[in-house]
């Protein structure tokens, strides 16, 4: 790109024939490249990747794939056929457009995967250098991402519980660990039918083997909690703050009705309680007014809908329309509606009444004692920990940071398009997820960088603003000379210039 010089250069130009050519997206890919270099991913990949007969350095291809995933998530085919040539990334990294094709991008996936563990470990060092990050608290959660296609070549692709509401597709499960600030620390890919609760021990071992056995506090939600998992952590001397299954609230029914709650913020109350069978742990009862109203509304809506459907069946039986139907078929019909409204199912009893071998009625009634308990428990949840901390407010705040892992998953799935996966081979799928992990590391680093400069916490909006910064070729027809072609970057709008100045770019 043309740089300013102290010595001016003069030429006589035919202004009627001045042209602008080769408009390219510049700002967002430039920012992505800055993040790649600030995290020193170029250095670690140059160190890890052995040189061979490749025409283009693999580090540049890794950079290209990750910046593309961050700035404009799409398939390798789209990157090669249209996206890359519309950006200035080729000028910035020195790779010509005709050298980027889908085959080279796929081979880059094959080359990058073996470096996963070393790079994840290296990122922790960079987080500490750049942001002063610590890794005392580790937040762990599991999600799933589904495939398009049969995935017959991927032994991990299996049918299971889908968080994406795509139970018709095979999937893999991903366990992600982040720190207190939401920076991604490590991850593992599990079989698509793996239950969350069975992944913890493997994840803890992986983190210790790869990143050391330093004392850490593990934080995870009730989907991963089991007595076996907690006993495993206690035997290792690990500390934890976790959610518990809702059924455990029954053990503290008396404490729920007492009034010695401590309000920690508007509408949220907590208190520490003891359990006679778990003397080595503390339990923190939490109650949220907003959550209570939401749960009450959800329960009432399901109750009304389930009762309405059951009453339709009841009317059909009484009017004789269903008398000739097979009883087992009607029972399945009832079961389908009960399965659709699980929150209401346990609160409503439905009993088929027979007159000999003929159906005569369907008795429907609400289970009053369970309804009363549900009303009392609305908005309440229970935490348990083996920390020595006595302040319930601090324990609650630690647990609420688990939202950082959930936010990281939302970013990966929505902003970085982790789903759906179109790759079929196991290693290619693993490499695709690794690229998404690197893009997430850059995305979250940008978020913290923005926050440190007082620019909020929305990298998506910043990337959108930077996307308007373009590069172009200005062609000047010069008298008595061949046309002069200047490759320039447009002058950003004033509000974008402010952003650049604040980020010191």
Structure, explained:
This protein has 505 residues and is an alpha+beta fold. It has helices at residues 27-38, 41-48, 58-71, 76-83, 89-93, 102-112, 116-131, 200-211, 227-236, 253-257, 289-318, 327-340, 342-345, 368-377, 392-400, 403-415, 426-452, 459-466, 494-502; strands at residues 19-25, 137-146, 171-178, 184-191, 217-220, 239-243, 262-265, 268-273, 282-288, 348-355, 358-366, 380-385, 470-476, 484-489. The strands form 3 sheets. A 9-stranded mixed beta sheet has the order 4-3-2-5-6-12-9-8-7, sandwiched between helices. It has a 3-stranded antiparallel beta sheet with strand order 1-13-14. The chain has a two-stranded antiparallel ribbon with strand order 10-11. Helix 3 crosses helix 6 (102-112), helix 7 packs parallel to helix 17 (426-452) and helix 11 packs antiparallel against helix 12 (327-340). The chain is elongated, with a radius of gyration of 29 Å.
Distance between the termini: 16 Å
- Biggest sheet, open or closed, and with what strands and sense? 9 strands, mixed
Helices, by number, come to 19
Give the strand line-up of the largest sheet.
Answer: 4-3-2-5-6-12-9-8-7
Helix residue percentage: 40-55%
Low-confidence segments: none
Strand content: 15-25%
**Based on DSSP secondary structure assignment, what is the total number of beta strands?**
14
Structural class: alpha+beta
Rg calc: 29 Å
- Globular, elongated, flat, extended or rod-shaped: what is the shape? elongated
Mean pLDDT: 91
Structure described in brief:
This protein has 505 residues and is an alpha+beta fold. It has 19 helices and 14 strands. It has helices spanning 27-38, 41-48, 58-71, 76-83, 89-93, 102-112, 116-131, 200-211, 227-236, 253-257, 289-318, 327-340, 342-345, 368-377, 392-400, 403-415, 426-452, 459-466, 494-502, and strands spanning 19-25, 137-146, 171-178, 184-191, 217-220, 239-243, 262-265, 268-273, 282-288, 348-355, 358-366, 380-385, 470-476, 484-489.
